[in-house]
Amino acid sequence: MASSRPKKFNSSFVKKFNFKDNRFKLQPDRKGFLCTCSFGEKDCQKEAINLLREYSEEKDNLLEDNTGTVEESTDIMDSMDNELQNLSNKDNSDWKKFTPLATGVGNCLFIGTTIEDPCELMYKILEDIENTKVQKTKFLLRMIPISITCKANLQSITTAFIDLFAKHFSSEPTTFAIMFNHRYNNSVKRDQIINELANQVASLGEHSVDLSGGAKKTIIVEVVKSVCCLSVVENYRRFCKFNLLSVCGRPEKRTAEGENGDSESSGSSPKVKKQEDEQVNTEETEKEHCESIEREKEIPDN
User: Per-residue DSSP letters for 95-122?
Assistant: First the structure.
């Protein structure tokens, strides 16, 4: 009886499989939206994409533009075919505009995008929620616009911030704050990152630190495993740290059964609670470092 031999794997198939798998993972040189939830990651992902698609395009204007471009001499059937074709192409582009990317961290996902400025779209969503007080999501809690992603190390972070700082801090003096948070990564030193970024901003002009909640610019540093998500946003405190439920005036903690559920014990999971505690400690550390930098500026030269 012939002995059984182990089957050999096709190396080309393995490489092809890994390539397809990595396309849907969070990697450097991407932009989009960092989303968090307490439970229901799949539902959170659907809510995030639907919300972004809703505010990204004006469907009514699209229909009016397509109708106006049809020539009068065109046959009715041809005009209908053209309109359906244009709508189909537009829908396909909308689906490609927002792509979910896996982060490898529970209750934390990333929606990649091809739009030019994720912050502009995020401001539009938050301002509408703030004015209407209408709850747009049930599972999605926070949605932070990310201008660029890079590798989670000091050199990559400072290099990626060069263009962002030149865009936001090259004009008139302004106030800023630094918000640092990390998930499943202890190699990136918080103190080192804060000092380096604060000095980099100070070298661009007479900008001052404001951690009282009124800072005009907020530097976002979100480390997720081996990838760092970076952005410079405005009105961070006004929009309740980009918490959609808080912006519309709803409580953050909700039951798993929904708004009409009888259970009162739900809220955040232990992992999310731990991340929230780490963020509070992070903000306190940032305040101490930024205040020390301000004191050094105030010391007169002898």
Answer: HHHEEEEEEEETTEEEEEE-SS-HHHHH
| The predicted structure's pLDDT at residue 24 | 83
Dihedral pair phi/psi, residue 140, rounded to 5°: -70, 125
Cβ–Cβ < 8 Å for 165, 126: no
Per the CB < 8 A criterion, the answer to whether 218 and 234 are in contact is yes
**Global pTM?**
0.70
281 residue type, one letter: N
6-18 tens-digit pLDDT: 555 455 544 444 4
- Contacts of residue 175, defined as CB under 8 A and 6 or more positions apart, other chains included, come to 207, 208, 209, 210, 214, 215, 216, 217
| End-to-end alpha carbon distance in the chain | 93
The structure tokens listed for 176 are 């800023």
